[in-house]
Amino acid sequence: QVQLVESGGGLVQAGDSLRLSCAASGRTVGNYDMGWFRQAPGKEREFVATISWSGRITRYAGSVKGRFTISRDNAKNTVYLQMNSLKPEDTAVYYCVVDIAQRVWGQGTQVTVSS
Fewer CB in 10 Å around end: N or C, the chain? Predict the structure, then answer.
């Protein structure tokens, strides 16, 4: 059974950058699409970005396009989310997902952006 562990969250100021990591264990995820979602306080969980198993195809929410970059290293069983030009509205818990028959979620990492 695959497990996902996110890291790299923290408290930053508007305009700063953060890089989130999501390490998978229990099985190889290199053959599966992966992605990131986020949930802000009082709001529903929302899509952020996805990446195909090969890394060749990526897709982003309009609110992060041009600022965030999703990537993966299949040799390390890890997916990343580089977040630049962070805004206070990016404050949320960020979750990593992998689609293996069913969607598997990580436990989340908190990102807080102060103005």
Answer: N
